[in-house]
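for the writeup, i need someone to sanity check this before i put it in the appendix. the sequnce is what the collaborator sent (i think, or maybe the updated version? ugh). structure was predicted straight from it, no edits. if anything looks off just tell me and ill rerun, i have time this weekend
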Amino acid sequence: MSASATELDSSRLAYHPELDGLRGVAILLVLVFHSGCPWLPGGYVGVDLFFVLSGFLITALLLQEWRATGGIALQRFYMRRALRLMPALVFLVACYLAVWGSSPKNRMFHLSESFIVLTYVSNWTSALGMGRPVLLGHTWSLSTEEQFYLLWPPLLIALLRRFRPSRLLFILALVAAAVMIARPILVLLGTPPARIYCGLDTRADALLMGCLLGCAAGTTFLRARRTSILEMLWACLAWGSLAAIAANLSWNSPAMMNWGFSATTVLAGVILLHCLRQPNSPISQLLRTSVLVRTGQISYAIYLWHYPIVFVLGINDNRPWWVRLIFGGALTFAMATISHLLVEAPFLKLKEKWTRPRTSLAATPA
């Protein structure tokens, strides 16, 4: 939900607008799901698409820097992440406190929720039954990604000092498979669904799938090639299967816990792989449409704002879901555009100025 596909420019990797389009599809799935659409009980699979994309983009960038400079500047990486992610989140929390935290009666509750969100631990407070933020409950996924950003770069450096990037593919595949095997075991042991759904460890396979593809970035395996009918069929099957999961499985269903999240991870990986290998296919061209690309480019702001807006609109249960979707969606896009232009854009310029590498890796702000 955070790293933009345009970040590939900053490492001289080719920009794939279809990845921004894929982010657009992901955020629209989540928006429709949170609006309460009864035809899409599994629209949360958009989050898995975000996880796979984030793992891919961040790993591709880190490996490109490693190949170009022989190292990874962690301080610059963390500064870039902070300038990319924190301003918009702080803006959201400030608006939340201004509207909901003004009452002395509930002030401590809203302050504690804001602290949980800003320290990126809302996934664990939800997973461990310590209280999930109400209007900001969707930030569990942001916390999951932020913890990944914190842990993965130094771990990747340690791995690269011992193994070639090609060897990492095998290691990452093993760890991802271990996570997939662990989930049904946890279900058998009676682990609460929220623990499995929100924990970084139990959702790491989606991020690792992206990391795995990121390790292959720049190799002949991911090099753009002619449209293949066979690969088109695989991609159509992946999209169809993902749509079937989104239309039938709730997040806490036994099927989703036992095999659904694993299937979603694999399907998202196949979809991303198709975008990278087949940029001229009809599917990739569809993802390149301007509406989807533009939506994907502001998907972080959309994700931040959509949940509290549709939640408030849903307080009155007499409102049908499509009312929440239409009015909530319109207000979400308006606030996301304001956040992107007035909050994110200035800090992106600062990010580019303050964290520009001294090597040829410098380029477009993400």
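The chain has a mean pLDDT of 90. The CA atoms of residues 9 and 265 lie 26 Å apart.
thx in advance!!
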